[in-house]
Amino acid sequence: MNNNIDKNQLQGLLNVVSKKIGIPPEQLKKELEEGKFDNALSAMSPNESAKFQQAVKNPKLIEKLMSTPQAKALYNKISGGK
Prior knowledge:
Layout: H1 7-21, H2 25-33, H3 38-42, H4 46-56, H5 59-66, H6 69-79
């Protein structure tokens, strides 16, 4: 898979998500790297959780979603345009 997100972008996303679900970014990163999604999933609605689990099982879907103009615009909004 082609990874187009640099380390600064990834850290920005981790910061936003960790703030939303109430766990430190370092803990979230560690859990995600270990394949543990319990904390992230517990903060989502059942519908969001199901979509997330589907995306995790299909990396091509994640790549496709992240390359959409909407995803890029959302990232720019949450990262402050950096």
